[in-house]
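We were asked to recover a plausible sequence for a given structure. The inputs and outputs are reproduced exactly as logged, with field labels preserved.

PROBLEM: sequence recovery
POSITIONS: 110
GIVEN STRUCTURE:
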């Protein structure tokens, strides 16, 4: 499995390492402009953080540390928050679906 390391900018993918066993080298003309940061990537990143925060709120120790004077009515809201965030995030992830291959997901050859 080939792996490239780099960062994505708004204009293109900027590679910092090229594997020695690759069929391309840095001198080759490889079009990396199709691998740029898009609005959908930012939306997915934002909702990923929101899901993480909603899951962190499920832990009672975290809630007691962050909100020491929590009342019963607010505690009910914190119990309803994670399923609501999960439902909304699922819809957003479906609307802004990604065709990118993440860490550990090898691209399939078609």
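RECOVERED SEQUENCE:
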């Amino acid at each position: 499995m080939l792996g490239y390391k780099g960062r994505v900018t708004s204009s293109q993918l900027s590679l910092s390492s090229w594997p020695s066993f690759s069929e391309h080298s840095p001198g080759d003309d490889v079009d990396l402009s199709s691998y740029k940061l898009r609005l959908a990537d930012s939306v997915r990143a934002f909702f990923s953080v929101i899901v993480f925060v909603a899951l962190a709120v499920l832990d009672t120790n975290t809630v007691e540390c962050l909100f020491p004077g929590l009342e019963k009515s607010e505690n009910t809201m914190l119990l309803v928050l994670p399923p609501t965030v999960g439902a909304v995030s699922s819809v957003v992830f479906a609307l802004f679906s990604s065709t990118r291959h993440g860490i550990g997901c090898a691209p399939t050859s078609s």
